Amino acid sequence: MTDESARDRKDLQLDQDRIADGGEALTTQQGVRVHHTDDSLKAGGRGPTLMEDFHVREKITHFDHERIPERVVHARGAGAYGVFQPYDDWLAEFTTASFLTDPAETTPVFVRFSTVAGSRGSADTPRDVRGFAVKFYTRAGNYDLVGNNFPVFFIQDGAKFPDFVHAVKPEPRNEIPQAASAHDTLWDFVSLQPETLHAIMWLMSDRALPRSYRMMQGFGVHTFRLVDANGRGTFVKFHWTPALGTHSLVWDEAQKVSGADPDFNRRDLWDAIEAGDHAEWELGVQLVPEEDEFAFDFDLLDATKLIPEEQVPVRPVGKLVLNRNPDNFFAETEQIAFHTANVVPGIDFTNDPLLQARNFSYLDTQLIRLGGPNFAHLPVNRPVAEVHNDQRDGYGQHRVHTSGTSYNKNTISGNDPAPGAEGSYRHYTEKVEGAKIRERSESFKDFYSQATLFWNSMSEVEAEHIVAAFRFELGKVTDKDIRARVVDQLRWIDLGLAQRVAEGVGVPAPDQGADNHGRTSPALSQLTAPVRTVATRKIAVLAADGVDGAGLTSLVADLRRRGAVAEVVGLVDGAVRSSSGEDVEVDRALPTMASVLYDAVAVPGGADSVAALGRDGRAVHFVAEAYKHGKALAAFGTGAELLETARIDAEVAQGTEPVEDHGVVTTAADGGELPDAFLDAFADAIAAHRAWDRPTGGIAA
Predict the structure, then answer these.
(1) 74 is catalytic
(2) Are 289 and 162 found together in one domain?
């Protein structure tokens, strides 16, 4: 017996032993058990492969076809399962949708978050809109709330959607740039389409750089309609508010995160759910009676407009909790099919021309992506409500229909299934009349006032970031005429904004512009009423041999008790030896991590540890970069020396009482349990997200 045949017999015996122990037998797609899967069927050991090798043909054919077309937009996504439950029944006055009104009803959901412009292989953190799509598996059928993390969109009519997406996608001549809006075609489009400007202001703001999907607002974007049991309608806007607050990256940080961890946002969501830190949002609604449809200085049907919360408050409805990760990314997150027209009784559309186009486009998209009309049979798309209809055949038909008829009405099958049962969907009754025309309503022609409202509502630091974003984006535009046209549009939002942007992009600054109306909406600023919590925040604790082990243990235990994720980051993997001779396990090695992957950094004492960190340029940069990005820093004992090595200009404590200086917290306490006052001060600095008042140069836009 040759060595090879002996190995083959051994491998086969291992497989047989595994099957005998309860393992699964390998089969073809037809359920036929496979004897051997490492070699093709050939005529002799070196002969040609035979066409009759049905197993290898099937195996390769499936491989050749296992990639479906990616989404044209929202290709890069992450998702999770969860539940939605209303708080009470107050909304029953306005809608028959029981999943929104019955506090005893818990509705399963799947939520998919996504970037918009990039391909599936792009990074998570470009400057971009984020999708926030929720599929409710209600007892009355599936309802899809397909939204974004901006409350407004870039265009008013779906006829312009292909133009907008073509403009923001990589340029057709060279397929550059990937997942980026900083290029000529997008800004050429913007300069010629002023309806885009309100959403562009959001895109240039910190809203386009979410720290986490779990710290991101969501909006239904459009004005929808709730319908009560009497057929009465009420206009509605949907809002999702994260329990952890709305927080963002800064631009310099976002660019570095894309290299350090391209999966930053999807990893964050996955890891949090796996750790039991379930992601939560509150659903709220803005309601407008039908008689008040024209009570605003904008058109409710205009998707480039929002209703200021000061005019119509957001009323809480219920809680969304994401508590389970998918079992298989392709089968669930990739194959899930959303559609704005998936509605249930009690929810209806308006005549928003962008929404009307989406109601066509989404279904059309699923037909090409998922191979035919039966994509609703896929488990992730399958409703929990029973399905009975006369739709037959087509690619991927899963059901074995036994009825003798596939039409309605009929007598052969007793006219089963029959329409008109109790609880059937009834469209809102609305009188419609008008000439058949192709033009925009005059009520849609205000392109600047809400962009100005957004600008006026920003804090000083948020406004600085917007100016810096415009300068970066337009600085990448090669055609100076396009730069000048964009600046010319900005002067109608705010003259000062236009002048500041012009100064940075090398075009003449305008000397005249529109009068700023001066109105603000504080809810538009992320810094108006921030949620302060350390829960799930990631803190890097730098350590090397000689670290103060007792102090490090005290700090890590306190952070974890407060719900934070504290990781010991060493110069190498494995363990570090404490100053008292004990091993301290390292969670991460410095060469594999970066400060941008954490929310805060702590430096324990221990003279040898601090000296070793100070000699390592990566460790010094780690601390300096965290300071630059406005993150909380802490040091105790000799740990403060590393802050000095990193040239951080902050007051350092000389005694055991903590000193806090623009988010830098220090104490001279060294060894043993750390003072509660120091631990509390560091936790407060982390909860603030960033030290926005840090001196000039402290926060990179």
Answers:
(1) yes
(2) yes
> Do 183 and 308 lie in a common domain?
yes
Please tell me whether residues 479 and 370 are part of one structural domain.
no
Q: Is 161 annotated as a binding residue?
A: yes
- Domain assignment present for 362: yes
Render the burial of 298-331: b for 16+ CB within 10 Å, e for the rest.
bbbbbbbbbbbbeebebeebbbbbbeebbeeeee
Please indicate whether residue 35 is annotated as part of the active site.
no
Residue 306 belongs to a domain: yes
CA distance 397 to 395: 6
CATH number of the domain where residue 183 is located: 2.40.180.10
DSSP element (H, E) containing 538: strand 538-543
Instruction: Please check whether residues 7 and 149 belong to one and the same domain.
Output: no
Q: What is the average pLDDT across 127-143? A: 97
- Which residue shows structure tokens 């419609």? 432
Mean pLDDT of the chain: 93
d(CA 290, CA 286): 13
Strands (E), 195-300: 218-219, 224-227, 233-242, 279-289
Q: Are residues 613 and 573 in the same domain?
A: yes
Q: Which residue has the higher pLDDT, 66 or 376?
A: 376
Looking at the domain assignment, is residue 447 inside a domain? no
Number of structural domains found in the chain: 4
How confident is the model over 341-361, as a mean pLDDT? Answer: 94
- Active-site position among 35, 36, 55, 148: 148
Same domain, 153 and 203: yes
- 394's tokens: 């087509």
Looking at this protein, which amino acid is placed at residue 63? F
Ligand-binding annotation for 426, yes or no, is no
Other beta carbons within 10 Å of 603? 31
Are the CB atoms for 370 and 337 separated by under 8 Å? yes
Residue 530 CB contacts under 8 Å (≥ 6 apart), including other chains = 245, 246, 247, 688, 689
The answer to the question of residue 181 being in a domain is yes
What does pTM read for this prediction? 0.93
From the list 272, 217, 246, the residue with the least C-alpha distance to 82 is 272
Q: Is the peptide bond before 103 cis (omega within 30 degrees of 0)?
A: no
Are the CB atoms for 602 and 555 separated by under 8 Å?
Answer: yes
Q: Of the residues 377, 405, 427, which one is the last residue of a structural domain? A: 377
Does 57 score more than 50 pLDDT?
A: yes
71 labelled binding-site residue: yes
Shared-domain flag, residues 599 and 460: no
Q: In the sheet that 600-603 helps form, which strands lie side by side, from edge to edge?
A: 588-589, 565-570, 538-543, 600-603, 632-636, 664-667, 659-661
Q: Choose one of 471, 493, 524: the last residue of a domain.
A: 524
Range of the domain at 481: 456-524
Spatial contact of 548 and 671, defined as CB atoms under 8 Å apart: yes
**1 band by pLDDT with thresholds 50, 70 and 90:** very low
For residues 58-86, average pLDDT: 92
Residue 112 annotated as binding site: yes
The Cα 184–Cα 473 span in angstroms is 9
Instruction: Give the domain CATH number at 51.
Output: 4.10.91.20
Q: Do 404 and 413 contact (CB within 8 A), yes or no?
A: yes
What value does the mean pLDDT take over residues 93-101?
A: 98
Give the pLDDT confidence score for residue 139 in this predicted structure: 94
Q: Chain-centre distance of CA 455, in angstroms? A: 24
369 a known binding residue? yes
Question: Both 470 and 563 in a single domain?
Answer: no
Task: Give per-residue pLDDT as tens, 424-441.
Answer: 888 898 888 888 788 889
E strand or H helix that includes residue 360: helix 353-369
Residue of 74, 198, 239, 662 with catalytic role: 74
Q: What is the mean pLDDT of residues 353-377?
A: 91
Distance between CA atoms of residues 67 and 69, nearest Å: 7
Lowest mean pLDDT among 10-14, 415-419, 424-428, 614-618: 10-14
DSSP 63-83: HHT-PPPPPSSS-SEEEEEEE
